[in-house]
Design brief:
The complex is a heterodimer. Chain A is mainly β. Chain A contains no helices and 11 strands. The chains are: A mainly beta, B mainly beta.
């Protein structure tokens, strides 16, 4: 089955630790996205990548880093510089031929204490 | 003011009722999306439309480009329709999605 996999579903970390969230897709999609969701707010774009080895900052990139070494994978690292890391993180992807349609993963809920 | 506004924020309905969720936007768009998010958090795309009306089962989505407004209707609502419904628009040069804050729908048996 084609789709987007995010792991783990729930992640707990101590303050001050970096943590990497996984996102893998087998849809052969070119572009991949990371969003953050907080209660009462719409999803906000953290980083996106339109091709391998290239990525751009979104609206709230501070305290996050990404890499895109393979087409299938777009991991997000939440660094200790991110002041409020506790949130729900969603990965999405889209095919170059369908510029307006994004497919979403199941999400990872990160709790930092 | 958010670029994408949804109303209502919360909606409780009885099973069988006709439901309408509204979305207004203030930017130029290429497409408008209706998404469904279940309690587990995963998001499913329901509709993508740029004009007119689309129907899928008991769900109907309409858009009025001139008025910058879209509605999502659910006919014969069922408790399994309980979810957060999110309106999003694709706009700007990068085709980024701009999201509304969502409407939490609870359908009671």
């Amino acid at each position: 089955d084609g789709g987007i996999t995010q792991s783990p579903k729930y992640l707990f970390r101590k303050e001050g630790q970096n943590v990497t969230l996984s996102c893998e897709q087998n849809l052969n999609h070119d572009a991949m996205y990371w969003y953050r969701q907080d209660p009462g707010q719409g999803l906000r774009l953290i980083y996106y990548s339109q091709i391998v080895n290239d990525f751009q900052k979104g609206d709230i990139a501070e305290g996050y880093s990404v890499s895109r070494e393979k087409k299938e994978s777009f991991p997000l690292t939440v660094t200790s510089a991110q002041k409020n890391p506790t949130a729900f993180y969603l990965c999405a992807s889209r095919h170059a031929g369908t510029p307006y349609e994004q497919y979403f993963g199941p999400g990872t809920r990160l709790t930092v204490t | 003011k958010n670029e994408v506004e949804q109303s209502p924020q919360n909606l409780t309905a009885q099973e069988g009722e006709f439901i309408t969720i509204n979305c207004s936007y203030s930017v130029g768009i290429s497409a408008l999306h209706w998404l469904q998010q279940h309690p587990g958090g995963g998001i499913v795309s329901l509709f993508m439309l740029s004009s007119g009306k689309k129907k899928h089962g008991r769900l109907i989505a309409t858009i009025n480009i001139q008025e910058k407004h879209s509605s999502l209707h659910i006919t014969a609502s069922h408790p399994r329709d309980s979810a957060v419904y999110i309106c999003a628009v694709t706009g700007g040069a990068t085709n980024k999605l701009i999201f509304g804050t969502g409407t939490l729908l609870a359908v009671q048996p």
